[in-house]
């Protein structure tokens, strides 16, 4: 789809608004339905919020989603055309059961929406054997019997001649990994939520919520007041404004698209997603195949980035320009990893991470109000989970618990 068509499709999302006659909570209670009353209000219709609107509306709740910008937008954490999805989770094996659910839900979303959102490209891992990327991934793969094939230096040179990988590094291929198109996924969740009867308002920022007896009141920058029984706060990098978390750090991250000498060598059919670590740089590097411009919006080129804690920022005042020094650093890295393959950097963009102190997510009920569910602190690795987080949120709202093992994501771990 061309960028303009994609944006038009997205804008269509912003203008639709339908009320749900089969309101779940209100049909069970004596509360009088008024125009501005909802079973659930979801604050932030980005990665997790759009999925939550979809899953909640599917369960029959009368849902209002409030998004301060457009859906999707390039100001938070979900912009940039692609996100890696993988199962041999180096961060911690506890994420694997959630990933099993996420994979299933991405497939269901594609079927219901009738369009492709997940691309199975495989993922090549390169790194020293003592690096967390390799050790942690092998541990998760072994524990959960994930297909994870090690290959030799000779095989690397034959199958992935684009890379210059040091001798002695461990090389692994995860066959069932791939990429998700974040903007398309968010539009899909939002459109299906609208179809289920949700109301989604864009360019309307929630500025305050207040508990009043058994309802929660939400005030917005449009001077409106909405009421609900349950509130979901999924405002990404802005979470501290409404959930009073002081221990989250928002960082400015850079994504780059390089211009290779030969596009064909890096095309979707010839080249996998990849991730690379060494013992001298912080974090890891990762990248994607070139996505054809006729079916993907966004910059054309070989996308790659450095996953590490970038500079601290305020989400309302992010430096969006990229300095020559920052761009040169990225160009030198990619030219070193892929010698004689890269001409220049085409495009650079910024995106935001919200870090918790242990880099694990927050998916929990509010410690002082069990009618509020909070998702946040996705620490730069959350998108692949969006399809399952929405389901978990809908269960926390509906039943107060989830069948998925999410104890390790609870807020009490910070006490
Ligand atoms: C460069 C980069 C690369 C990444 N790569 C990967 C990857 O390969 N794989 C992966 O799994 N993850 C990846 N991630 C992480 C992933 O994209 C994030 O974890 C995920 O998008 C976070 O989702 P979210 O819903 O918390 O935030 P968002 O998607 O940003 O949604 C929050 C929304 O809330 C809205 N909002 C905020 N405040 C208010 C308010 N007061 N009222 C109304 N609306 C409000 C915002 O405008 C925004 O739209 C990457 C992130 C970045 C930045």
How would you sum up this structure, described in words?
The protein has helices at residues 3-15, 24-28, 47-58, 96-113, 132-143, 153-159, 182-195, 239-243, 324-337, 386-398; strands at residues 37-43, 63-66, 83-85, 118-120, 123-127, 148-151, 170-174, 178-180, 199-201, 206-212, 215-220, 225-233, 249-260, 273-276, 284-287, 302-307, 311-312, 342-355, 362-366, 369-376. The protein has two domains: 3-78 and 183-246 and 359-414, 3-Layer(bba) Sandwich (FAD/NAD(P)-binding domain); 121-179 and 249-355, D-Amino Acid Oxidase, Chain A, domain 2 (2-Layer Sandwich), CATH 3.30.9.10. The termini are far apart. The protein is globular, with a radius of gyration of 21 Å. It is an alpha+beta fold. Flavin-adenine dinucleotide is lined by residues 43-44, 46-49, 66-69, 73, 75-78, 80, 83-84, 205-206, 234-236, 238, 242, 253, 255, 305, 351-353, 376, 378, 380-384. Flavin-adenine dinucleotide binds at residues 43-44, 46-49, 66-69, 73, 75-78, 80, 83-84, 205-206, 234-236, 238, 242, 253, 255, 305, 351-353, 376, 378, 380-384.
